[in-house]
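Loading example: each entry is read as two labelled lines plus one structure line.
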Amino acid sequence: EAAVTQSPRNKVAVTGGKVTLSCNQTNNHNNMYWYRQDTGHGLRLIHYSYGAGSTEKGDIPDGYKASRPSQENFSLILELATPSQTSVYFCASEDRAEQFFGPGTRLTVL
Amino acid sequence: AQKVTQTQTSISVMEKTTVTMDCVYETQDSSYFLFWYKQTASGEIVFLIRQDSYKKENATVGHYSLNFQKPKSSIGLIITATQIEDSAVYFCAMTRTGGYKVVFGSGTRLLVSP
C-alpha cells in the first residue's frame, strides 16, 4: 500500500483559477515537501513543512501557498494559476534525510 | 548555498556492463548527506543509496555503489551488471546534516540496451 499519495493525478486548470494539490502520507513522518519537476531543472523545492501547522518557503515559492493541517496532509495551493506553473508536482515525506515520494500530479494551466 | 551538478545528460550502455554516473556538489557545510534517486519511466521516484560525508567507506546496496571523493566534491554512482530495468533517470542530491532542504541535480538518463 502506497505510503505517499497525491490527488488529483492529472489536472487541467484555466489561467487565473485556483488549484489545490493534495498529498497524504501514512509514514507518520514529520517533514513533508512539495517539488516541481521541469525538463532540465530536476526537482525544485517549492514549500516544506516540519509538522502540522508549519509551512516554510523553499527555493521557488512565488505563486504558491502551502497548508499542513495535520501530520498526514500537506496541500499546495495556486491561488491564481498561470501557464508558467504547468509542470509535474511531487510531494514527499522524509525520514532521517531519506525522501519518500508520491506518484506526482501533472498540472496543465491553459 | 548548496549546488549539485550532473553534467551527463544521457548515457547508453549494453546490458550486463558497468556504468558510472558523475555528480559534483558544492557546499559550505562540514557535515552532509549525499543521495542518488531513480525515476522510472512511469514517473516514480525511489531512493537508491546514500553516503554520509563523515564516512570514508563507499556505500554499496545491491548492484549500486558509490565512488565518494570528498576532496573533489564528487559522488559518482556505479551500477554493475546493468539490467534493462535499470533504464531510468538518475538524480544526485544532497542535504546538510540536520537540514531539511534537499538540493537535486538535473538528472542523467540511462538507457540499457539488450
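Residues 8 and 108 of chain B are 6 Å apart (CA to CA).
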